[in-house]
Recover the amino acids of this structure.
């Protein structure tokens, strides 16, 4: 048993020594390879400079932007022109956004007015219907007239509801166009109004 342990230890020791000598030889050859590559490296052309650890300047600043501008007046004029162009673009964008906002507000006001008119008409009809059904004498005398008025009312309500739906569709299209133009976000309040009206 002791003999087996000694043989195993000797084998491990021998393998460790061989591994160290191989890795040392590999490291030495890798270092030699790096030195030869560095010696055979071509000089960079003056038009393009590439910095690495061997040629990076230590005493001066490295400019990654490029050579400095030759004329300060032309640089300032260019900057002023760019600022003017940016201000003009911002003003154009603001006026376009104001125009879209005005169009959308007008359409919303139109829809609100139509909804208000429909609501008033429905309230008036309910009052007339309750008065009609509340008085038996009126029902007997004016049954034909009430039926005619009832049919007219239903036709008017249907037309107004279609007009409101068309106006809402137009508002949605306008909001989509404004959104595509990057002017305004799609209005979530109109979606809430649509769901509340359907209930």
């Amino acid at each position: 048993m002791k003999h087996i342990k000694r043989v195993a230890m000797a084998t491990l020791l021998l393998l460790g020594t061989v591994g160290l000598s191989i890795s040392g030889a590999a490291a030495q050859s890798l270092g030699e390879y790096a030195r030869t590559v560095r010696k055979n490296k071509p000089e960079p052309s003056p038009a393009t400079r590439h910095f690495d650890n061997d040629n990076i300047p230590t005493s001066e600043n490295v400019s990654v932007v490029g050579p400095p501008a030759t004329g300060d007046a032309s640089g300032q004029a260019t900057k002023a022109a760019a600022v003017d162009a940016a201000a003009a673009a911002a003003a154009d964008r603001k006026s376009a956004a104001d125009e879209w906002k005005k169009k959308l507000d007008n359409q919303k006001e139109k829809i609100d007015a139509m909804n208000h008119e429909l609501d008033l008409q429905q309230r008036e009809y309910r009052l007339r219907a309750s008065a009609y059904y509340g008085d038996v004498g009126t029902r007997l005398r004016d049954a034909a007239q009430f039926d005619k008025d009832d049919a007219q009312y239903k036709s008017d309500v249907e037309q107004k509801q279609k007009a409101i739906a068309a106006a809402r569709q137009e508002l949605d299209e306008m909001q989509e166009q404004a959104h595509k133009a990057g002017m305004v976000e799609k209005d979530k309040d109109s979606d809430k109004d649509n769901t509340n009206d359907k209930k």
Remarks:
- The mean pLDDT is 77.
- The longest helix spans residues 72-134.
